[in-house]
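Fold it.
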Amino acid sequence: MSTHLGTIQRRIETLLVEFKRSRNIWQELNTEGLPAASKLVNSVIQSRYSDDLAYWHPSLQKEFPNIIKKYEHKMNKLIEQDYIKISVILERMAKQYAKMVTFAQEFIAIEKRASEVLENVEIPIFRTCPIHVFVKRTSDVVAMYAKELALKKRLVEHGFKQISSQENGMSLLSVWLNQPTLYDHVIQEFDDICQVELDS
């Protein structure tokens, strides 16, 4: 049994390290995404100037008859470039989420294996927690990231490009930055458990 337990411990330890690494990379990408999203929001706001005739002096329009059309073309191009940048960051976040899902599935597989090889699945894997605690906690954390990824997709696909005002844009940027579906206290509690369990 001790051989099986040792194997399970090593696998769980590796998974927990990788799981945390994916969450750290996600956080770095979230930070990296903020200026990209901000640039997109600013480009969308600036593109609205073409609709405001007060912005274009009549003498300017007379001297450059196509100026509004050229401005619109330039801004649409910038918006598309900014959209691609934030979309690429979002894709990278989705890859980290996919890794987290895989890790959560591996915990479930380990739990199944533990039930086959250990006499009692309620025994602590390290110090105090049996395997089902890790399974439940990782599943809970992954579920939060699933919601956050869905929220970020809505922001990128339907939010940033359709903002109605600067205030609206700032609100959406705040949502991106603060990640409201990730409950910090739940994640911190999970990290604390892992630290206690893995400290030798």
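Residues 2-33+87-198 form one domain.
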